[in-house]
Amino acid sequence: MLVKEVIDIIEEFAPPAYAEDFDNVGLLVGDKNSKLTGALITLDTLESVVNEAIEKNCNLIVSFHPIIFSGLKKLTGKDYVEKTVIKAIKNDIAIYAIHTALDNQYKGVNDMISEKIGLKNRHILIPRKNSIKKLTTFVPNKQAAEVRKALFDAGGGSIGNYDNCSFNIKGEGSFKPNEEANPVIGTRGEVHLEEETQIGLTYPAHLEQNLLKALFSNHPYEEVAYEISTIENENQHLGMGMIGELENPEDERSFLERIKHEFNCGCIRHSQFREKEIKKVAVLGGSGSFAINQAKAAGADIYLTADLKYHDFYKADKNIILADIGHYESEQFTKDLLHSYLTKKISNFALILADTNTNPIKYI
C-alpha cells in the first residue's frame, strides 16, 4: 500500500477543498508514492511524535494540526517546527495534516465532542455557504436512466439522508450538426428534433470533476449540453461547530463539573451563571470566539469552546454561558475519530494511536 492510498481515504472523508482559506492542510512533508509501513495518528506533530513514529516503524504521521502553518524560508533547526520537519525528512516520514477540513465535516471534530457530551438532535452551528452546486443536462430519453445513474454513482444527487435525488423534465431538443460534426443522432446540415429529458441534480462542490467525467463518459452526444451553477442554499451537513440538546436538563455547575471530568480539563473558565438549567448546548473545538454570536442566536444555554480572551466573556451578556474548556482538551478525541475511521477502511496495515501527549499547557 502506498502513502497516497491512505491520503485518498482521508480526503474522501474530509475533502481539503472544505478547509478554511487560512489553513494549511494536506501532505506537508514526504513522498506520497512511498510504500506504507504504518501510520501514526496524532493531534499534533512534534519532534517527540516523529521519534515515536520511528520507534513504531511508521513512515506516515496523520496529524490533526499542521506543523507547517505559515511559510518556511529556511530549515536550520532554529525552532520546534524546523526541528520536527528536518527529523521527518531525514527519516523518510511523511506528514499529513487534516485540521479544518475535519472541523467542517459533519461527522468530524464537533460531532465527536457532541457525542461525548451526549447531545441529541444535533446540527451544524454555522452551515457552510457556496459548497453546493447544481448540474443541469439534456439527454435523449432512451439514455436518460443510464446517465442519471452514472451521475448518482459519482456522488451527485445526495441531500442529507437521501440519495438518488434529481428532477426530470421531458421535452424536445433541437440541433443542426455542421459539416465537421460526427453526430450520433441526426444528419449533417439538417435540423434534428429529439425527445429529451432534462436532468437536474445538486452535488457537493468538491465532486465537480467526478460529475463531469461521469457525464462525458456516459452521455451519447458528441457535444454535451450542460449547465453548472452555485446555489445559495446553506449546506446543513458541512460547516463549523455544532448545537444539540441534552436528553435531560442539567444544573449549570453540575454540567460543567461533568465536562471537566470527562474532558480531563485542568480548569474551565466561564462567564457568569444564569441560574438556569442547561438544555441546549453549542460546541466548537479549538479557537471558537468567532462563533459566539451564532451560538447566542441559536438559543444555546451554554457554548463550549477554547481560547476565549478576557473581553470575549463580556459578550455572554447574561444571554448565554461561555465556557473555555481548553484547546487541547476540546480536540483531544479527534485522533480517536481518525483512528476509528481509518481502521474500518484499512485492516492490513498498522494504524497506531500516538502515545505522546502534545498538550503544551500545564496546570498547577
TrEMBL record:
Keywords: Metal-binding. The keyword Metal-binding applies. GO terms for cellular component: cytoplasm. GO terms for molecular function: metal ion binding. A divalent metal cation binds at residues 65, 103, 327, 331. Pfam families: DUF34_NIF3. Homohexamer. PANTHER family: GTP CYCLOHYDROLASE 1 TYPE 2 HOMOLOG, NGG1 INTERACTING FACTOR 3. Belongs to the GTP cyclohydrolase I type 2/NIF3 family. NCBIfam families: YbgI_SA1388. This is GTP cyclohydrolase 1 type 2 homolog.
